[in-house]
Each structure stands twice: as C-alpha cells, then as structure tokens.
Specification:
With about 240 residues, the protein is of the alpha/beta class. The protein is built from eight helices and ten strands. α4 crosses α5 and α6 runs parallel beside α7. The longest helix is centred in the last third of the chain and has 16 residues. The chain binds adenosine-5'-diphosphate. Adenosine-5'-diphosphate binds next to α2. The site of adenosine-5'-diphosphate (ADP) has 12 residues, from α2.
C-alpha cells in the first residue's frame, strides 16, 4: 500500500506542519497557522496551558482529526490525502502513550504488550521472544504476569511504554505521560523515554511539568491560543 503513499512524498523531514489551521465544527479555532518541523531522532517537548492546542496537534499527526487548511506531513506523506482504510498502517509507525495508560484490565502486562503485536500480525515466536525483552527494557520483566490492578501507576505507565515501542515505531508520542505520577516515577518514566530516544526513536512529549522540561535540556515548543509562541532548542519552560 505504501506504493500509493510514496507518490505523495515531497520532502525528507520526519514531521512537517505547513501553515496548519484547525477549526472544529462548532467554530472553535484550535490551531491557527502553525508551522514547524521535527527531524528524525529528535526529542521535543510541547508545552502550553490547557486549551492551547497540544492535543489537537497530536490528533492531526495520527489522522484522528483533519486539518482545516495547511498540510501535515509525516515522513513526507500528506496525512490529509491518506485514505481512511490506510490510516492503521500509518498509525503503526507511531506509538502513543497516554496519561491514563489505557491498558486492558483483563489482560496481564505481558498480554497487553503481546496484544499489540497480535494486532500487527506478528508471529507467535516473535511475540514470545520480544515481549519479555521489551518489558525488561522498561524495568518490568519481574512483573509481566501481573494484571493492571496489581500494578502501581509508575508500573502501569511502563507497560504502556512497552506496548507503544513493541512494534518498533518511528516515533513515540507521549501525551502527558507523567500527569498521574509522583516525582520519583515521573523521573523514571522520563529516563525511559530518554533511553528510547537514545536508541534512535523520535519522541514528542506533551507536559505541564516545568521540572521535566528543564531537566531534559531538549527542544521545547510552547503553544498558546492555537499558535506556537516559542520554539526553543534547549529546554526552557516559561509560560
Ligand atoms: P490542549 O491539549 O492544549 O489542552 P486542545 O487541542 O485539546 O488543547 O484544545 C484546543 C481548543 O480546541 C480548546 O479551545 C478546546 O476546547 C477546543 N477543542 C478541542 N477538541 C474539540 C472538539 N472536538 N470540538 C470542539 N472544540 C474542541
């Protein structure tokens, strides 16, 4: 199917928002002529008050919402022109981590991660060798047979990170991943995201946590009222 997508290529940046605006059906303008690009292997934090447009920006990236005007390119593919039936293939290249974990409560940590591989059509042998390996990487190998109710918030977020990276996405989007965590778990989850980034995966993090952004020392995009008001190459959080 990528043959059709290749026809839409027009540059080599990993993510490119070209003058993107988004107005919801009720008339709310969530994004107002936003332009930026993110290169392969970058670690970028997106900060801003509630309602600034961070979630909308992320939804446009994986095709959950469509831009009203402008172009959103992922690996040079114009997302607006990807057909509905081709979106799952695109989304497999993007791993998403949510604040509220979104794990299946009737499956163990192992099964939650394995399920993502099953959906992607991976073979049983690959699943049984990769899942313990990735759970080890996030420091949860010893609890892989626990159900979500038997895990702490920090541990649940580790499972959700393992699930996001198991199919080797090009990019990880972490939407307020430490919003429900205490400072120690916050620190550890951010260290895991840094490790994933060091291994070559692009990471986009949305957060309200000033300490996290400043300790990362990476690029920070600040949003306000649907616009980018600052794009700082080395972490500074000032709203
Ligand atoms: P953030 O993630 O920074 O809190 P959002 O992208 O969620 O910001 O929201 C940006 C603006 O768009 C807000 O004014 C919000 O109320 C509005 N908005 C978000 N989703 C919808 C929607 N589905 N319909 C109408 N307005 C929306």
């Amino acid at each position: 199917m990528f043959a059709t997508l290749f026809a839409l290529r027009y540059n080599a940046r990993m993510i490119y928002f070209d003058n993107v605006s988004k107005t919801y059906i009720d008339g709310t303008m969530a994004l107002d002529k936003v332009s930026f690009s993110i290169g392969q292997g970058e670690f970028v934090s997106i900060v801003g008050h509630s309602g600034a447009g961070k979630t909308t920006l992320i939804k446009l990236l994986f095709g959950e919402e469509r831009a009203t005007s402008g172009a959103v390119l992922f690996d040079s593919i114009d997302i607006k022109r990807v057909k509905e039936r081709d979106l799952p293939t695109l989304r497999r290249r993007i791993g998403v981590i949510f604040q509220d974990f979104r794990l299946l409560s009737n499956k163990t940590a192992y099964e939650n991660v394995a399920f993502a591989m099953e959906i992607a059509g991976k073979a049983d042998e690959e699943i049984s060798s990769d899942v313990p390996h990735v759970l080890d990487l996030v420091g949860l190998g010893h609890k892989m047979w626990n159900f979500p109710r038997q895990l702490s918030g920090g541990e649940l977020q580790r499972v959700s990170i393992a699930r996001a990276i198991i199919n080797h996405p090009d990019i990880i989007i972490a939407d307020e991943p430490t919003g429900n965590l205490d400072p120690i778990n916050t620190y550890e989850i951010i260290q895991i995201l840094k490790k994933i980034n060091d291994l070559g995966t692009t990471v986009i993090l949305t957060t309200h946590n000033k300490g996290v952004v400043e300790s990362l020392g990476k690029r920070v995009i600040t949003m306000d009222h649907g616009q980018i008001i600052r794009d700082n190459p080395v972490g500074e959080y000032s709203l």
